[in-house]
Amino acid sequence: MAQVLRIDPLNPDRSVLERMAAVVRDGGVIVFPTDTIYGLGCSPDDQAAVERIFGIKQRVEEKGLLLLVPDLESARSLCSTVPTAFERLSAEFWPGPVTFLLPARSNLLRLVTGERGLVGLRNPQSGYLHLLMDTIPGPLVSTSANISGEPPSGRVADLREQLAGQVDLFVDGGDVGEAVASTVVDLSVEPPRVVRAGVLGKRVEEAIKRL
């Protein structure tokens, strides 16, 4: 049975962060609280771990996966090109619940980039997630902890029932309330396009009009 650890995202225990990072480095899959929902996480460079996440979610391989990144430099390093719109929109909405789809560098895993060869990147608001990425160190796959097409849960107790035997570590940060996914913006097209409204959809659409 997978271990369950508790964490206070506002005052995270260093030993819990180190355990989470160790599982990710060793090719494991974790359930963890993000600043929007509970996510499934793993290393974006580990083919087997990424394949496990697709299996858990019963997700079609044509769709890529979101990566949490610690900063702009890390984000740029994952892209083959960086549109001007990214610089302007990321300055306004990062850190925050906005995911940008950008042309991916060629050596990223095909399962991460999907059939369009794009990488979804988000710089989260949560300080604990930045500490986690520093501890790993590096970006982290983060996709909603649910079966594709099913509503995500904001409670680890529910996720333990749904995902029992499929993940290596559950990290309980308390109930997240109503789970709201991030806004997703496709920057591979001109003009940029909001493809999932999420929590900041209207604000992002207004910002795109000002580009």
Describe it for me?
The chain has 211 residues and is an alpha/beta fold. The chain has one domain: Alpha-Beta Complex (DHBP synthase), CATH 3.90.870.10. It has eight helices and ten strands. Strands 1-8-2-3-7-4-6-5-9-10 form a ten-stranded mixed β-sheet, sandwiched between helices. Strand 9 and strand 10 form a beta hairpin. Helix 1 crosses helix 6. The protein is globular, with a radius of gyration of 16 Å.
Radius of gyration: 16 Å
- Helix-strand sequence: EHEEHEHHEHEHEHEEEH
Annotation field: number of helices: 8
Q: What number of domains?
A: 1
Unreliable sequence segments: none
User: What is the terminal-to-terminal distance?
Assistant: 50 Å
Strand order of the largest sheet: 1-8-2-3-7-4-6-5-9-10
CATH secondary-structure class: Alpha Beta
Helix content bin? 25-40%
DSSP strand tally: 10
Could you say which overall geometry the principal axes of the C-alpha atoms support? Answer: globular
Major sheet attributes:
10 strands, mixed
Overall average pLDDT: 93
How much of the polypeptide forms β-strand, as a percent range?
A: 15-25%
